[in-house]
Amino acid sequence: MSERLLVLVRHGQSEWNLKNLFTGWKDPNLTDQGVKEAIEAGRKLKAQGFVFDVAFTSALTRAQRTLDLMLTEMGQTGIPVTKHLALNERDYGDLSGLNKDDARAKWGEEQVHVWRRSFDVPPPGGESLKDTLARTLPYFVQEILPCVLRGQRTIVAAHGNSLRALIMVLEKLSPEGILARELGTGAPVIYRLNADATVASKLDLAA
Asked: How confident is the model at residue 207 (pLDDT cuts 50, 70, 90)?
């Protein structure tokens, strides 16, 4: 029986993570620390003996570069890679590019907290986590999950909120549960699935 393997990895630290800016669909690159995190993620996966058949990533540089650095570290750069904006980070709309402290000064701490940590309240011109789920999940079900279920070992490098949307479904979490779920940069989460797409086992390779 072939292995139904799915590995999810949030991109390494980006330049805007470092500057405490809302990033969303903006496209900053990785910091030196982010590069190290991506290489270390690849090293951890290699040490565990993982070999992948297919890879998916978003349309944004920080996720694509994280995937490339991981695959290079594992010596697996030849596998097919699919890039799609369905896996992009949540769109923060009018908050994009703003310092989080400046946003609090403009709209108030409570309002910014609601935008960041509620499930279904979007920031002005942006997406809520519910909206991100509605964008990301169909792509996962139609394109990624079939690869996993037919035994293609699959790695996905994406973003905190697009991956949260997938984790919410995989782990059957409530809206409250997924909001509390933290995803470290460059920290692989490894799932093995049953034939019915439920989770058989989960391993978190966070540092």
From this structure: low
Could you confirm whether 109 is annotated as catalytic? Answer: no
Phi (first) and psi of residue 157, to 5 degrees: -110, 115
Angle between helices 160-170 and 129-139 (to 10 degrees): 70
Query: Which element (helix H / strand E) includes 203?
Result: strand 199-204
Contact 203, 190 (CB under 8 A): yes
Out of 37, 73, 89, 127, which one is annotated catalytic? 89
Give per-residue pLDDT as tens, 40-61: 999 999 999 999 999 999 999 9
Distance CA 130, CA 111 (A): 17
89 part of the active site: yes
Residues 6+ apart with CB under 8 A from 129: 90, 118, 119, 120, 161, 164, 165, 175, 178, 179
**Backbone CA torsion sign across 137, 142, 148, 152:** negative
The count of residues in the chain is 207
Tokens of 90: 């949540």
Residue 109 tokens read as 């701490």
